[in-house]
Amino acid sequence: MDTEAFYRYLTQARRQLWTTLRAMPDEALSQAVIPTEGARCIKDLVKHVAIVEDGWFRLDLLGQPLVLETFGGEPTSADAYWHHQDEPLESLLAYWEAVESDTLGRWPELMDVVSADRRVPVSEDRLETLSADEVIWHVMQHEVRHTAQVVQMIRLLGRQPPALDLVFLTAH
Q1: Sign (positive/negative) of CA torsion 36, 59, 16, 27?
Q2: Global pTM?
Q3: What is the per-residue pLDDT for 73?
Q4: 63 — phi, psi (to 5°)?
Q5: Is the alpha carbon torsion for 34, 35, 41, 45 positive or negative?
Q6: In angstroms, how far apart are the furthest CA atoms of the chain?
Q7: Domains in the chain: how many in total?
Q8: What are the binding residues for a divalent metal cation?
């Protein structure tokens, strides 16, 4: 499976997940399920998945402004980055949808960066670099991992999560 096909699978999985989340009460989506300094509730992970794609694809690969800038700008603290329990789900999903739409619109540009064999730093404080292809796969794998966390959180909250496995969404 190539990168574009896998990203298309993610868009299908998102639709299933978003439908489930929209049917859940806000108290459940905002409830701290994981005892951590980072993402504690479902809403935290929704924002985190979107901002990681936004940052890696727009800033690091394309050198473009974040989609987040049209949604109030970058967080100014760790708390503002991680914790979104008081934000409406629809605002968080609107941001994720905007990131997805921008990614789909810029897919040819992203593939041009991959073809150019460009490398980007892992982070500002490390010397290692990643190829653009590795960045794209990292972002997609990151989403799968955190979506699995959301599915588990939905179960821990006593609800039925959607079936998001690739086999269920891509089989003919």
Answers
A1: positive
A2: 0.95
A3: 85
A4: 65, 30
A5: negative
A6: 47
A7: 1
A8: 48, 142, 146
Question: Is 92:99 a contact under the CB 8 Å cutoff?
Answer: no
Crossing angle of helices 107-115 and 132-156, rounded to 10°: 130
How is residue 78 written in tokens? 């760790």
Structural domain boundaries enclosing 75: 3-170
Q: What is the pLDDT of residues 40-96, one digit of tens each?
A: 999 999 999 999 999 999 999 999 999 999 998 889 899 999 999 999 999 999 999
CATH number for the domain including 147? Answer: 1.20.120.450
Contacts of 28 (CB under 8 A, 6+ apart): 42, 157, 159
Other CB atoms within 10 A of residue 18 CB: 17
Backbone φ and ψ for 131, nearest 5 degrees, come out as -70, 160
List, as residue ranges, the binding site.
48, 142, 146
